[in-house]
Amino acid sequence: MPDHSQHDSVAPAAGALPRQLGHRARALACATIAACALTVSAPSFSAAGFAEATPAPARASTAGPDFAAVVQRNGAAVVNVSNNSSVKLTLDAPSASGADASADDAGGVTALLRSFGGPDGKLKSREFPVHAEGSGFIISADGRILTNAHVVQGAKEVIVKLTDRREFVAKVLGSDTVTDIALLQIDAHDLPTVQVGQPSQLRVGEWVLAIGSPFGFENSVTVGVVSATGRSLPGDTLVPFIQTDAAVNPGNSGGPLFNAGGEVIGINSQIYSRTGAFQGLSFAIPIDVAMRVADDLASHGRAAHAALGIGVQEVDQTLAESFKLDKARGALITNVNAGSPAARVGLHPGDVVLAADGEPVVTSNDLARHIGFADPGGLLKLQVWRNGRAADVRVQLAVADATPPPAPRRDAERLSRGAMSLTLRPLTDAELGAAGIGLGLMVEQATGSSALAGVQPGDILLAINNEPLASVAQARVALAHADRAAALLIQRADARLFVPIRLGS
Question: What is the pTM of this model?
Answer without folding.
Answer: 0.63
